[in-house]
Amino acid sequence: MHPSGLREAKNAATRKALARAVLRLSTRDGIDHVTIDAVAAEANVSVRTFHNYFAGKEDALLHFVDTLLDSVIERIEARPAGESFWCSVRAALIETATSPDVGEPAEIVALLRLLDTDPGLAARSRDMDLDQTVEARLTQLYARRGQRADAMYPHLVVHTAITTARVALEYFVARGRPDLSTVLESAFDQMSAGLVHPAPLMNPADASHKEP
């Protein structure tokens, strides 16, 4: 690998490690109690190194959100061209949520809740125009997958799938069973079948719990 490529890879790895450290500490202690000193110690770097990458802990968490979005979009684009858009988004979200690179389910749930409730994170998100950036990237994705960006369908698919994945993650974190992949698959099976009747979880050992 070219030296510049190695440097970029190292920078990306450090940025990811710092973002993960902020997320771990925020999950454990609450974001208000997380200090940059603690983040630097958790990631085994100096405070100066942290500030070389991020202006603050909110920026680090939003970078983590950005990398999650990148992962999902890349996985959707890698799906077979003839596959339905719903099935592609479903597979991409499940693969991302169960990837070892993403972190613990409890951390992802904590991050999603912070995005909803933390004023500092919401303000920084607005400053960075995160919503507009996400929408622009999704519009490009729709076009590449043969979906009209001005149609309701692709937006309905993406937002329904994200909500489904979030509910499944919260269910798993609250109960710790069955395994995460089974819970996610079951939740998406339920959405595919509709919500008129409940579908059982796929794990027979959990058959007494009918709601996905």
TrEMBL record:
Q: Which residues bind DNA?
A: 35-54
Q: Which residues form a coiled coil?
A: none
Going by the UniProt record, its keywords in alphabetical order are: DNA-binding, Transcription, Transcription regulation
Q: Which InterPro entries match?
A: DNA-bd_HTH_TetR-type_CS (IPR023772), Homeodomain-like_sf (IPR009057), HTH-type_TetR-like_transc_reg (IPR050109), HTH_TetR (IPR001647), MftR_C (IPR041347)
User: What GO MF terms are annotated?
Assistant: DNA-binding transcription factor activity; transcription cis-regulatory region binding
Q: Which Gene3D superfamilies match?
A: Homeodomain-like, Tetracycline Repressor, domain 2
Cited Pfam families: TetR_C_14, TetR_N
- Highest taxon listed in the record's lineage: Bacteria
Q: Where is the HTH tetR-type domain?
A: 12-72
What's the protein called, per UniProt?
Answer: DNA-binding transcriptional regulator, AcrR family
Q: Which organism is it from?
A: Gordonia westfalica
